[in-house]
Design a protein that fits this description.
The protein has about 450 residues and is of the alpha+beta class. It has ten helices and twelve strands. It folds into three domains: about 1-170, no CATH class; about 215-300; about 305-460, Histidine kinase-like ATPase, C-terminal domain (Heat Shock Protein 90, 2-Layer Sandwich), CATH 3.30.565. It catalyses: ATP + protein L-histidine = ADP + protein N-phospho-L-histidine.
């Protein structure tokens, strides 16, 4: 619909406002026209009375009637002094319905009486009181029929309304064309540019070229251009990352197969009778296992193939004790630099996927252990768990050196949040996804020179 468009509504509002302005002008115009009309009748009536005065009252009834008809009145009373009055009269067909004193020039009564005069009934007789012109007396009173005044006033009002309508339509049309040229057309151009860009965001030819002469529209076009350029760069980066991810996935797949073969060979080397080979074989197996695990994690992350959690009820403390025992056995060269503390109530149980929770806790505890071992100093890792109103809170707290600033800023960003040399930054990303799959959150509570604290919040079972 036309009037639902910007230009249509602007056209309609312009016409309404112009008509409103014309109405505000119309009422004073009508009031002034009525006043002039009545003053003209008073002047004519005075001329007729002066003709009677000039003849010393010796005129025929027919001439008196002609004088009254010419003046358009029924009778005239001219008071020249306190005693003498000259009267020119004819039969009045109806009682006088209203008296108007033209000596009072207040605007509000004139406007009120002017509007009322447009709707006077037929055969209305009114009396007028005014001052004689040229100081020809003290007072003049006239009685007249209001029908001719009403008809003339209605005709004048109609002409004013038609003229107002023509002016409003012409003004609205000119403003409509101006708005179309200066505002609507540039806006449509911006919309077309957005639609074109949406169809082919990689095509640089679809970028808008700011050329509007209106400051606000020029700013909008420039903002859109910056947005399109930023989005184009982001899409290109996303495409390159997707290609890189595909390449990494293919390399990881092939590398995993190679490492699996190497792992089988390492198993045979472990059975060697050579003491040096026997001591080196476990380390080689551990390195190969970590490499295979990294390849599998990279493939799983790239394919987003993490299965949904299989929820079961299990006790948390035995799981924590088991992974702590495994990490204790895995300490570098058997050096007991790390002390493990478990503060988990024996009765605390979770409804979650045991395998996924084990992976998450193992990742956090192992990261903490490796960070402490890298310093060569003794440290402590504490795993606590408590039930709260909003869920079960599990905390992994260490006394290590804390995470670097860059690692904290990109902690849950793939391939960016690695805190140790050679890390990919996938461990925490996958851990956070596993916790989100349970409806919970994994967050870094603090990390400074006194250590690091991670918090897992798992909601209660529904």
């Amino acid at each position: 619909m036309f009037f639902r468009t910007l230009s249509g509504r602007f056209l309609l509002l312009t016409m309404i406002f112009v008509l409103l302005a014309e109405v505000l002008i119309f009422v004073p115009y009508v009031a002034r026209y009525r006043e002039d009309y009545l003053l003209t009748r008073v002047e004519r009536a005075q001329i007729a009375s002066l003709a009677l005065l000039a003849s010393d009252g010796q005129i025929s009834d027919k001439l008196a009637e002609e004088l009254l008809d010419t003046a358009g009145v029924y009778n005239v009373v001219l008071r020249r002094d306190a005693v003498r009055e000259l009267v020119l009269s004819s039969p009045v067909p109806a009682p006088v319905s209203a008296t108007y004193d033209l000596r009072d020039g207040s605007i509000w009564p004139l406007m009120r009486d002017g509007l009322a005069a447009l709707f006077l009934p037929d055969n209305t007789v009114i009396r007028l009181i005014g001052d004689p012109v040229q100081e020809a007396g003290l007072l003049i009173e006239v009685t007249m029929n209001a029908d001719p005044m009403r008809d003339s006033l209605q005709d004048y009002a109609m002409r004013i309304l038609v003229l107002s309508l023509i002016i409003s339509v012409a003004t609205a049309a000119l403003l409509f064309l101006a708005v179309q040229r200066l505002i609507v057309t540039p806006i449509r151009r911006v919309v077309r540019s957005m639609a074109t860009y949406a169809k082919a965001p990689e095509d640089a030819r679809s970028l808008i070229v700011p050329d509007s002469r209106v400051t606000e529209l020029r700013e909008a076009e420039e903002a859109l251009l910056h947005l399109q350029e930023d989005l184009m760069k982001a899409l290109r980066q996303k495409e390159r990352l997707a290609q890189l991810g595909g390449a990494v996935a293919r390399v990881s797949h092939d590398l995993r197969n190679i490492l699996s073969t190497a792992s089988l060979l390492a198993d045979r080397i472990e059975r060697s009778d050579d003491p040096k080979v026997a001591r080196a074989a476990p380390k080689l197996l551990n390195s190969l296992s970590r490499a295979i695990s990294l390849c599998e994690s990279t493939l799983a992350f790239g394919k987003a193939e993490e299965p949904p959690p299989r929820l079961t009820q299990f006790a948390l403390r035995p799981m924590v004790e088991d992974l702590v025992e495994s990490e204790t056995m895995a300490t570098a060269d058997g050096a007991q630099l790390v002390e493990f503390l478990v503060d988990v109530p024996p009765t605390l149980s979770l409804r979650a996927d045991p395998e996924q929770i084990h992976r998450v806790l193992t990742n956090l505890v192992r990261n903490a252990r490796q960070a402490i071992e890298a310093t060569g100093k003794e440290g402590c890792i504490e795993v606590t768990a408590r039930d709260a109103e909003d869920g079960t809170a599990i905390r992994v707290i260490d006394t290590g050196p804390g995470l670097p600033q860059r690692a904290r800023e990109n902690l849950f960003a793939a391939f960016q949040g690695g805190a140790r040399k050679g890390g990919t930054g996938l461990g925490l990303v996958i851990a956070a996804e596993l916790i989100r799959g349970h409806g919970g959150t994994l967050s870094l509570e603090r990390s400074d020179a006194d250590g690091t604290e991670f918090r897992i919040l798992l909601p209660h079972a529904i």
